[in-house]
Amino acid sequence: MMKPLSILLLGTLMSATAHAADQAVKSISPDRLLINGTSQATLGLSQSWARPSPQIQRVVIIFHGRLRNAQTYLRSVERAANQSKQRSKTLLIAPQFLDEKDIAAHHLPETVLRWHTNDWMAGDKSLGARPISSFVVIDHILKRLSDSKLFPNLKEIVIAGHSGGAQVVQRYAMIGGKEDALLKKEGIKLRYVIANPSSYAYFDATRPLPVSAASCPGFDTWKYGMNKLPAYAGKETVAELEAAYVKRDITYLLGEQDTDPNHPALDKDCGAEAQGPFRLVRGHNFFDYLTKRHPEGINQRLVEVKGVGHNGDAMFTSPEGQAALFKGN
Predict the structure, then answer these.
(1) What band does 45 get if pLDDT is binned at 50, 70 and 90?
(2) Is 94 within 8 Å of 74 (Cβ atoms)?
(3) Cα–Cα dist 120/234, whole Å
(4) Distance of CA 82 to the CA centre of its chain
(5) Which of 281, 292, 219, 221 is nearest to 252 (CA)?
């Protein structure tokens, strides 16, 4: 008996997506950021940041998903900036977290940072003799942006990501913040846009669906929970991390049609499955969790993007996406 066309197409899509994720990236972003004197982070820029840029009032840092296609995301936010008429005063930055296979395929030097598979999503350290957390890369970008000699009129930085990149943003918002004081001193506001991640880190063992350590040993372990935090997190308590997190200006941007429980890039780990069957519900569940824990109110909001599924370009170029990136509250 012949299979329905929809099943055949889904199988082809899943196979193609998995294949792409397992292959070396086609494009290596051209720019580099020196970290700790020897290591080089890879990133794409919409314009040079090597000289003073008094015209820049906002920076959007956009994170790719598991395909590591930073240039694709850079082009998406460029379109969104053009549509919002914000391009001339906005610097766009797209970090690229490379894999071992990318380094080999493109014959890159040992000084270029690389991670094992998707470890960068959780802030894990890079491979090699001088391991560096992916979150340290973000810290160094923020530190450079806080230089008033380079960016004398910078007022706002938006850290945004879609899918796997949104996982980076949500976890960084939880345990990051090493440059907060410096940004505040320079009068620079920091906002976060978290679009369609597969999962979230929770502050305690509460989950929307029944789960236990016996049935799912890692459900409350980082990157899904607060147990076994990476060294980057420092010595702050979970309560202190949560208190800081709910004060952060965060927009959860969810595609109204991101409802496929069998999407090829959806996290199927039991730690993620305990958060709901698909991304739209997982996002609502996490937001509801936060609001119930903080009846006094949180500095965050959830916005659904009508008619859009798991598509980063459609999310960020939508009216809702443009508003989140370029207009704030």
Answers:
(1) very high
(2) yes
(3) 18
(4) 22
(5) 281
Q: How far is CA 51 from the centre of its chain?
A: 27
Spatial neighbors of 139 by CB under 8 A, at least 6 apart, are 176, 178, 179
Q: What average pLDDT does the segment 296-301 reach?
A: 96
Taken in order of first residue, the domains within the chain and their CATH numbers are 24-326 (3.40.50.1820)
Six-digit token string for 295: 């009846």
Q: Which two tokens stand for residue 58?
A: 């906002």
- At 104, list the tokens: 């080999």
List pLDDT tens digits, range 84-115.
999 999 999 999 999 999 999 999 999 999 99
For the record, the structure tokens of 65 come out as 């998903």
Residue 22: band (very low, low, confident or very high) from pLDDT cuts 50, 70, 90:
confident
Which residue shows structure tokens 């505040």?
184
Task: Identify which of 73, 76, 115, 77 has the alpha carbon closest to the alpha carbon of residue 95.
Answer: 73
Contacts of 283 (CB under 8 A, 6+ apart): 196, 197, 200, 252, 254, 302
Tell me: cis bond preceding 223? Omega within 30 of 0 counts: yes
Q: Give me the residues paired with residue 29 across strands.
A: none
186's torsion region: left (phi>0), alpha (psi -120 to 50) or beta? Answer: alpha
Residue at token pair 């900036």: 81
